[in-house]
Amino acid sequence: MSVAEPTQSRGRALGSVATAITECERCPRLRSWCRLVAEQRKREFRDWTYWGRPVPGFGDPEGRLLVVGLAPAAHGGNRTGRVFTGDSSGDWLYEALHRFGFANQARSVSRDDGLELRDCYVTAAGRCAPPDNRPTREELARCRDWLAQELSLLQRVQVVIALGRIAREAWLRAAGWWDRLPARERPGFGHGSIATLPDGTVFIASYHPSRQNTNTGRLTREMWYGPFREARRRLT
Questions:
Q1: pLDDT tens-digit map of 166-199
Q2: Least buried of 9, 120, 166, 201, by fewest C-beta within 10 Å?
Q3: What is the pLDDT of residue 155?
């Protein structure tokens, strides 16, 4: 078997998971909301044909860095069909990934814009844009299996950056650590906090680059770069 074959096999398997995610109908409230947004559209994007479906993860099947977010934005991923693409949060994320060598370009505007991730995979706790950016705990639980399936195929991950508390819990649960570790031993949440799991995986917490955080100064650019700088240092 050539070196490329396992990579191609994982890529195909991730593609199958991605297809299944886009066809998911587990959460009627979310599916109805995403379709409504896609029909009504935002004036700024009135000429777009919105994706309007669940959004799968994206990136390098051999990636050693995993970035976990919350969920697609109504006029971001729900419009473009690619996670963290087409909104201000995505602008922050891909600029940082490019700055630290994990992406070939600093901005992503559509799923066919030429963006390639290097040694990195980006995914989310939820795959449908939720009203008011607030999925329910039940909706997150229904969605968790998709993240678990991706994790089972992303076998080279060494560093995880969780963007927000919900992403932190989603990853810990999907990866099995939530049940395996006593509460006091689970990685906590604080921007820039770092923990090493029993298998050697490094967990880094970060505030989510939402407008609520970036416009208020709760998350500055230098703060934001910290987790990605640390990830690059550990993966060099």
A1: 999 999 999 999 999 999 999 999 999 999 999 9
A2: 9
A3: 95
Is the pLDDT assigned to residue 59 strictly greater than 70? yes
| Exposure string over 150-164, b if 16+ CB within 10 A, otherwise e | bbebbeebbbbbbbb
**Under a CB-based contact definition with an 8 Å cutoff, are residues 125 and 116 in contact?**
no
Query: The domain 4-235 belongs to what CATH superfamily?
Result: Uracil-DNA glycosylase-like domain (3.40.470.10)
Give Cα 65 to chain centroid, integer Å. 11
CB distance 62 to 75 below 8 Å: no
CA distance 206 to 68: 10
Q: Where are the domains of the chain?
A: 4-235
Terminal Cα distance for the chain, rounded: 27
Sign of CA dihedral 231, 111, 81, 50: positive
Distance CA 194, CA 148 (A): 22
Phi, psi at 60, each rounded to 5°:
-85, 120
Beta-strand relationship, 58-59 and 65-69: unpaired
Give the torsion sign (CA, 146, 71, 140, 151): positive
Looking at residue 161, its pLDDT comes to 99
Alpha helix locations (H) across the chain? 4-22, 28-40, 77-80, 88-99, 137-153, 165-174, 177-180, 211-214, 221-235
